[in-house]
Amino acid sequence: MKNHFKTVRFNLDFMNTVHYILFMPKLIPQLEEHIINTAEKLFITDGFDSVSMRRMANDLNIAVGTLYNYFPNKAALFFSIMDKSWNKTIAEVEKLIRGSEAGAFETRRAVIEIIYRGIKDRGAFARKTFDYSNLENHSHKLKSFKPDWQHDLIKNLTELLKPLGAGFSGTDAERTVQSLLASIRFFISFSESDDEAGNIDFLLKIAELN
Fold first, then answer.
1. CA–CA separation, 83 and 89 (whole Å)
2. pTM for this predicted structure
Protein backbone atom coordinates (compact mmCIF):
# COMPACT_ATOMS: atom_id res chain seq x y z
CA MET A 1 0.00 0.00 0.00
CA LYS A 2 2.83 2.40 0.89
CA ASN A 3 4.47 1.72 -2.46
CA HIS A 4 1.15 2.39 -4.17
CA PHE A 5 0.87 5.84 -2.54
CA LYS A 6 4.48 6.60 -3.43
CA THR A 7 3.75 5.72 -7.07
CA VAL A 8 0.60 7.88 -7.13
CA ARG A 9 2.45 10.79 -5.53
CA PHE A 10 5.31 10.42 -8.00
CA ASN A 11 2.85 10.40 -10.91
CA LEU A 12 1.08 13.52 -9.60
CA ASP A 13 4.39 15.34 -9.11
CA PHE A 14 5.47 14.33 -12.60
CA MET A 15 2.18 15.53 -14.15
CA ASN A 16 2.38 18.85 -12.28
CA THR A 17 5.91 19.37 -13.57
CA VAL A 18 4.86 18.60 -17.15
CA HIS A 19 1.87 20.96 -16.84
CA TYR A 20 4.11 23.76 -15.51
CA ILE A 21 6.60 23.33 -18.35
CA LEU A 22 3.87 23.29 -21.01
CA PHE A 23 1.71 26.10 -19.69
CA MET A 24 4.08 28.35 -17.75
CA PRO A 25 4.19 31.99 -18.90
CA LYS A 26 6.82 32.61 -21.55
CA LEU A 27 9.84 34.25 -19.94
CA ILE A 28 11.54 36.52 -22.45
CA PRO A 29 14.61 38.43 -21.27
CA GLN A 30 14.20 42.20 -21.61
CA LEU A 31 10.62 41.75 -22.80
CA GLU A 32 9.70 45.44 -22.58
CA GLU A 33 12.57 46.41 -24.87
CA HIS A 34 11.65 43.56 -27.23
CA ILE A 35 8.04 44.82 -27.38
CA ILE A 36 9.14 48.39 -28.16
CA ASN A 37 11.51 47.26 -30.93
CA THR A 38 8.86 45.01 -32.48
CA ALA A 39 6.22 47.76 -32.33
CA GLU A 40 8.58 50.19 -34.04
CA LYS A 41 9.18 47.76 -36.93
CA LEU A 42 5.46 47.00 -37.31
CA PHE A 43 4.47 50.69 -37.24
CA ILE A 44 7.01 51.43 -39.98
CA THR A 45 6.05 48.53 -42.25
CA ASP A 46 2.26 48.47 -41.76
CA GLY A 47 1.33 51.86 -40.27
CA PHE A 48 -0.06 52.79 -36.87
CA ASP A 49 -3.72 52.19 -37.78
CA SER A 50 -3.17 48.74 -39.29
CA VAL A 51 -1.33 47.23 -36.33
CA SER A 52 -3.52 45.90 -33.53
CA MET A 53 -2.35 44.92 -30.06
CA ARG A 54 -3.39 41.33 -30.86
CA ARG A 55 -1.30 41.31 -34.04
CA MET A 56 1.65 42.65 -32.06
CA ALA A 57 1.25 39.95 -29.40
CA ASN A 58 1.15 37.27 -32.11
CA ASP A 59 4.36 38.58 -33.67
CA LEU A 60 5.99 38.63 -30.23
CA ASN A 61 4.68 35.12 -29.48
CA ILE A 62 3.18 36.25 -26.17
CA ALA A 63 -0.38 36.41 -24.82
CA VAL A 64 -2.19 39.64 -25.60
CA GLY A 65 -2.83 40.00 -21.85
CA THR A 66 0.92 39.98 -21.26
CA LEU A 67 1.31 42.80 -23.77
CA TYR A 68 -1.36 44.85 -21.99
CA ASN A 69 0.49 44.31 -18.70
CA TYR A 70 3.34 46.35 -20.19
CA PHE A 71 1.45 48.84 -22.38
CA PRO A 72 -2.23 49.82 -22.07
CA ASN A 73 -2.57 50.80 -25.76
CA LYS A 74 -0.73 51.71 -28.96
CA ALA A 75 -0.33 55.35 -27.93
CA ALA A 76 1.72 54.22 -24.93
CA LEU A 77 3.89 52.17 -27.27
CA PHE A 78 4.35 55.12 -29.62
CA PHE A 79 5.54 57.36 -26.77
CA SER A 80 7.88 54.62 -25.55
CA ILE A 81 9.45 54.54 -29.02
CA MET A 82 9.80 58.33 -28.95
CA ASP A 83 11.26 58.22 -25.42
CA LYS A 84 13.79 55.60 -26.49
CA SER A 85 14.87 57.74 -29.45
CA TRP A 86 15.03 60.98 -27.44
CA ASN A 87 16.97 59.24 -24.65
CA LYS A 88 19.56 58.22 -27.23
CA THR A 89 19.81 61.83 -28.47
CA ILE A 90 20.05 63.19 -24.93
CA ALA A 91 22.77 60.67 -24.02
CA GLU A 92 24.81 61.77 -27.06
CA VAL A 93 24.39 65.44 -26.09
CA GLU A 94 25.38 64.77 -22.47
CA LYS A 95 28.47 62.87 -23.57
CA LEU A 96 29.48 65.67 -25.93
CA ILE A 97 29.00 68.43 -23.35
CA ARG A 98 30.95 66.53 -20.68
CA GLY A 99 33.84 65.59 -22.95
CA SER A 100 34.10 68.54 -25.31
CA GLU A 101 37.38 70.44 -25.37
CA ALA A 102 36.19 72.72 -28.18
CA GLY A 103 35.07 76.29 -27.64
CA ALA A 104 31.52 77.18 -26.63
CA PHE A 105 30.46 78.12 -30.18
CA GLU A 106 31.76 74.87 -31.71
CA THR A 107 30.16 72.82 -28.93
CA ARG A 108 26.80 74.53 -29.45
CA ARG A 109 26.99 73.74 -33.16
CA ALA A 110 27.83 70.07 -32.51
CA VAL A 111 24.93 69.77 -30.04
CA ILE A 112 22.48 71.33 -32.51
CA GLU A 113 23.67 68.85 -35.16
CA ILE A 114 22.89 65.92 -32.84
CA ILE A 115 19.41 67.25 -32.03
CA TYR A 116 18.74 68.06 -35.71
CA ARG A 117 19.62 64.56 -36.90
CA GLY A 118 17.66 62.93 -34.10
CA ILE A 119 14.52 64.88 -35.01
CA LYS A 120 15.11 64.07 -38.68
CA ASP A 121 15.19 60.34 -37.87
CA ARG A 122 12.04 60.60 -35.73
CA GLY A 123 10.32 62.55 -38.51
CA ALA A 124 11.10 59.76 -40.97
CA PHE A 125 9.63 57.25 -38.52
CA ALA A 126 6.46 59.35 -38.10
CA ARG A 127 5.99 59.71 -41.87
CA LYS A 128 6.16 55.92 -42.29
CA THR A 129 3.95 55.30 -39.27
CA PHE A 130 1.03 57.67 -39.81
CA ASP A 131 -1.40 58.36 -42.61
CA TYR A 132 -0.69 62.07 -43.09
CA SER A 133 -4.16 62.68 -44.53
CA ASN A 134 -5.42 61.90 -41.02
CA LEU A 135 -2.48 63.42 -39.13
CA GLU A 136 -4.53 65.98 -37.19
CA ASN A 137 -6.70 63.22 -35.72
CA HIS A 138 -3.61 61.19 -34.76
CA SER A 139 -1.98 64.23 -33.12
CA HIS A 140 -5.11 64.93 -31.09
CA LYS A 141 -5.34 61.34 -29.84
CA LEU A 142 -1.66 61.17 -28.91
CA LYS A 143 -1.69 64.54 -27.14
CA SER A 144 -4.80 63.57 -25.18
CA PHE A 145 -3.05 60.39 -24.01
CA LYS A 146 0.09 62.18 -22.78
CA PRO A 147 -0.60 65.95 -22.84
CA ASP A 148 2.54 66.99 -20.91
CA TRP A 149 5.01 64.94 -22.93
CA GLN A 150 6.35 67.78 -25.10
CA HIS A 151 6.40 70.27 -22.22
CA ASP A 152 8.41 67.83 -20.07
CA LEU A 153 10.81 67.22 -22.95
CA ILE A 154 11.45 70.95 -23.40
CA LYS A 155 12.07 71.40 -19.66
CA ASN A 156 14.55 68.51 -19.63
CA LEU A 157 16.37 69.83 -22.70
CA THR A 158 16.50 73.35 -21.25
CA GLU A 159 18.21 72.03 -18.12
CA LEU A 160 20.58 69.88 -20.17
CA LEU A 161 21.67 72.70 -22.49
CA LYS A 162 22.32 75.37 -19.83
CA PRO A 163 26.10 74.76 -19.78
CA LEU A 164 26.24 75.80 -23.46
CA GLY A 165 25.69 79.45 -22.55
CA ALA A 166 24.30 82.10 -24.94
CA GLY A 167 20.51 81.79 -25.30
CA PHE A 168 20.51 78.43 -23.53
CA SER A 169 21.47 79.90 -20.16
CA GLY A 170 19.47 83.14 -19.99
CA THR A 171 16.04 83.86 -18.55
CA ASP A 172 14.47 82.91 -21.89
CA ALA A 173 16.34 79.60 -22.15
CA GLU A 174 13.15 77.56 -22.40
CA ARG A 175 11.90 79.79 -25.21
CA THR A 176 15.23 79.32 -27.01
CA VAL A 177 14.79 75.54 -26.85
CA GLN A 178 11.18 75.81 -28.07
CA SER A 179 12.28 78.00 -30.99
CA LEU A 180 15.10 75.61 -31.82
CA LEU A 181 12.83 72.54 -31.91
CA ALA A 182 10.09 74.31 -33.88
CA SER A 183 12.61 75.59 -36.45
CA ILE A 184 14.17 72.14 -36.88
CA ARG A 185 10.74 70.59 -37.46
CA PHE A 186 9.94 73.31 -40.00
CA PHE A 187 13.16 72.75 -41.95
CA ILE A 188 12.65 68.98 -42.00
CA SER A 189 8.91 68.99 -42.79
CA PHE A 190 8.35 72.02 -45.01
CA SER A 191 11.59 73.47 -46.32
CA GLU A 192 12.32 72.70 -49.97
CA SER A 193 16.04 72.98 -49.27
CA ASP A 194 17.90 69.95 -47.94
CA ASP A 195 20.89 72.08 -46.97
CA GLU A 196 21.53 70.57 -43.54
CA ALA A 197 24.71 72.59 -42.92
CA GLY A 198 22.97 75.84 -43.88
CA ASN A 199 19.97 74.99 -41.71
CA ILE A 200 22.22 74.30 -38.73
CA ASP A 201 24.03 77.63 -39.29
CA PHE A 202 20.66 79.38 -39.10
CA LEU A 203 19.66 77.43 -35.97
CA LEU A 204 22.93 78.41 -34.36
CA LYS A 205 22.04 82.07 -34.90
CA ILE A 206 18.74 81.50 -33.08
CA ALA A 207 20.68 80.14 -30.11
CA GLU A 208 23.08 83.09 -30.20
CA LEU A 209 20.40 85.78 -30.52
CA ASN A 210 18.06 84.71 -27.73
1. 10
2. 0.77
